[in-house]
Amino acid sequence: MSLTVEEAGRALADPGAYADEARLHAALTLLRREDPVRWVEAPGYNPFWAITRHADVLEIERDHEVFLNAPRPLLATAVQDEINRTRAEQGIGLRTLVHMDDPDHRVVRAIGADWFRPKAMRALEPRIRELARRYVDRMAILGDSCDFVRQVSVHYPLYVILSLLGLPESDFDRMLKLTQELFGGDDTELRRGETPEEVLEVLMEFFAYFQELTKARRARPTDDLASAIANATVDGEPLNDFDTTSYYVIIATAGHDTTSSTISGGLHALIEHPDQLRRLQDDPGLMPLAVDEMIRWVSPVKEFMRTATTDYELRGATIRAGESVVLSYPSANRDEDVFDDPFRFDVGRDPNKHLAFGFGVHYCLGAALARIETRAFFEELLPRLESIELAGTPEGTATTFVGGLKRLPIRYSLRG
């Protein structure tokens, strides 16, 4: 069945579309070709402009003084938009780097920036490789089959990021559950419930946990990222409780779910493209390029929103002051004007100008960590992998923000 441009635009506000890759990319391809700056009125949502071309996403990302994160940093229903606005006014909502604009964004981002610089990443790499080995060993212990997402890929990056924060392993399962509930709000299987009150319960559990952590790290600072956040100051004053907790939440969640999606989606791509799997096994030097191709292919962050502060012309359309745009990263990363044969999975793709980490002042703080984690895992797995195939049908997460596969049943044979 062929899509209309109107239907294609509404797909960006349909969580189910992101669980159906064929449907999603059919819609995004149509929008890039027919109406790349598309005004969308989707049932239950405030209207927005859908931005689907790589050049346009880049242009808006660059102009961070015209296009702000506030007040709609993420696509949400009209009801949730109003709830978020009210909570922000009351000071009880998340206020992460995703929600901030300069000058606050620049100052608060600097608190954790040193922990994600190359020197810090090199220091963390032995721990990352130890955990990569642990989870490939786990695949061997599980035998010749597993659900790769549930038994491997959701755990490995979570252990990495929580190790960076300095949290005890006894708390990791709790953090996994809360993370999945926070990002799985559109998925009937992952979310805690449907009501705003149930969503708020998840946030309040995060807040309660991290407020206790803050107290502990202020009383007895340690050499970890949690202590750096807990003891950070802005203009000589410590961060307030909600800003401190929000910082923990964005590190713990964004640093986990996106990488998990990349690793599981990357393995799925290698299974579906056995020639590329063999190519990578034969030439391990391609791994850095392969990792970026996995990131482009999966695009785990589906969108961010920006709101115009003044009228802005883009491809003949006038985006009025106060109107919001949805930046579609899966679409930008399949743009035919930028990527040669964009629907080909190519572990040697070079150049690869994907926008999966964003661009400019809001470029992902953890981009280097995500690359190291993904590279370490596949450098541990592929030399030991003798065979691999699907053992069932993969399932995607219903979402409009962050997600990927929630099930990847595989059958395999490992050496050692």
Q: Overview of this structure, please?
A:
50% of the residues lie in helices and 12% in strands. The protein has a 5-stranded mixed β-sheet, with helices on both faces. It contains 16 helices and 14 strands. The model has no long low-confidence stretch (mean pLDDT 93). Helix 6 (118-142) runs antiparallel to helix 8 (156-165) and helix 14 packs across helix 16. With 416 residues, the chain is α+β, with helices and mostly antiparallel strands. It has helices spanning 5-11, 21-34, 54-62, 78-90, 104-113, 118-142, 148-153, 156-165, 172-183, 196-219, 225-230, 241-272, 274-282, 287-298, 329-332, 367-381, and strands at residues 37-40, 48-51, 67-68, 145-147, 233-234, 237-238, 303-308, 312-314, 317-319, 324-328, 385-390, 395-396, 405-407, 409-414. Strand 1 and strand 2 (48-51) form a beta hairpin. The protein has a single domain, classed as Cytochrome P450 (Cytochrome p450), CATH 1.10.630.10. This is Cytochrome P450. Keywords: Heme, Iron, Metal-binding, Monooxygenase, Oxidoreductase. InterPro entries: Cyt_P450, Cyt_P450_B, Cyt_P450_CS, Cyt_P450_sf. Belongs to the cytochrome P450 family.
How many independent structural domains? 1
Q: How much of the residues is beta strand, in percent?
A: 5-15%
The total count of strands amounts to 14
CATH topology: Cytochrome p450
Give the overall form. globular
Structural class: alpha+beta
CATH architecture: Orthogonal Bundle
Helix tally equals: 16
The side-by-side strand order for the widest beta sheet comes to 1-2-10-7-3
Radius of gyration: 21 Å
Main β-sheet, in a few words? 5 strands, mixed
Family: Belongs to the cytochrome P450 family.
InterPro entries: Cyt_P450 (IPR001128), Cyt_P450_B (IPR002397), Cyt_P450_CS (IPR017972), Cyt_P450_sf (IPR036396)
Pfam family, one: p450
Organism: Actinomadura rugatobispora
